[in-house]
Amino acid sequence: MFTLIYITASSVDESASIGRKLVEERLAACVNIIPSIRSIYHWEGSMEEDEESALIVKTSHELTPQIIKRVRELHSYDNPCIISIPITGGSRDYLEWLDDEVKRP
């Protein structure tokens, strides 16, 4: 089983740094970076609005806990958005490639 993990970060540079580490360490097969997103949210009693960057991480479901731990170590936020979304289907060839590229826990 495979998973997409959605992560927001303070900048494209932070996203690229986190993404590179996840791929280098074989925790992710691929990381896509969306350079600019506008985020609106409540934080510590105030409404906030920020420019952020987003990562879409493609990995095996079993690696999700390790990715969450690693992102928390690398991330500048106290409480980063890290959301796991199950992949329920897709190109068989792509999913086989994804499986070959990540390390087994």
UniProtKB/TrEMBL annotation:
InterPro entries documented for this protein: Ion_tolerance_CutA (IPR004323), N-reg_PII-like_a/b (IPR011322), N-reg_PII/ATP_PRibTrfase_C (IPR015867)
A single MF term (Gene Ontology): copper ion binding
GO-annotated biological processes: response to metal ion
Similarity comment text for this entry: Belongs to the CutA family.
Family annotation (PANTHER family): DIVALENT CATION TOLERANCE CUTA-RELATED (PTHR23419), FI09726P (PTHR23419:SF8)
Name of the protein in its database record: Uncharacterized protein involved in tolerance to divalent cations
The organism of origin for this protein: Methanothermobacter defluvii
Organism lineage string: Archaea, Methanobacteriati, Methanobacteriota, Methanomada group, Methanobacteria
